[in-house]
Design brief:
Helices cover about 15% and strands about 35% of the residues. By secondary structure, the protein is an alpha+beta fold.
């Protein structure tokens, strides 16, 4: 009899719980789509903003492509997303980066009467990502720079299948200074986009 490592069982249980919790979001999804009440015009184009104007690194422009540089809009979650941010670093040189990613869905959630952004529980599985290894980012020098973040959502295809159907999603990304133990935030970015219907079938 195969004995599965405790860590593997723990992660599997978290993913099963995530699947169950996420399924509740589907209830409000259809109504939001029928209302055509999309945030920031994301049915037509990508939307983004800095979520902290006091951070030392501020974005100027954002693009989302697949790893080959091809246009990826609406977003195909069966492929890795390459988010490229033209930015300005008003701080010091950063040699190590950590990235925390949260996912939000635009729907009515469980009890709300209006559509809003509701967090999709990921149990911090997308926290403490190595910002140097998932993009050509390190070191970050002062002045103009190009920051790349590669986010792979393909492990969540089964979960996202429940929520797919031309649904707006938001990636909330916090980029942290990994050079010291404080891990202070140096950049925060919200990227809002549409998930391509049926993209998780690949």
């Amino acid at each position: 009899v195969e004995v599965r490592p405790a860590k593997t069982i723990y992660l599997t249980m978290k993913l099963l719980i995530l699947l169950l919790v996420t399924s509740f979001f589907a209830a409000g999804q259809a109504t939001c789509a029928a209302d055509n009440n999309d945030p920031d015009g994301v049915r037509e184009h990508l939307a983004w903003k800095s979520c902290n104007p006091n951070d030392v690194i501020q974005p100027i422009s954002i693009t989302v492509t697949d790893p080959a540089g091809n246009n990826n809009y609406p977003i195909d979650v069966s492929k890795a997303l390459l988010i490229t941010a033209k930015s300005v670093n008003n701080g010091i040189t950063y040699n190590k980066l950590l990235i925390d990613v949260d996912i939000y869905a635009w729907n009515k959630g469980l009890f709300a009467k209006t559509c809003t952004w509701n967090v999709v529980p990921t149990f911090h599985l997308l926290y403490n990502l190595d910002g140097c290894s998932i993009g050509k980012n390190c070191p970050l020098l002062p002045g103009p720079l190009t920051l790349e973040v590669s986010v792979d959502l393909s492990p969540y295809k089964a979960i996202l299948q429940i929520l797919l159907g031309n649904t707006p999603y938001k990636l909330h990304m916090r980029i942290l200074n990994g050079d010291d133990s404080q891990h202070e935030e140096i950049m925060c970015l919200d990227v809002e986009a549409m998930i391509a219907k049926g993209s998780s079938s690949a």
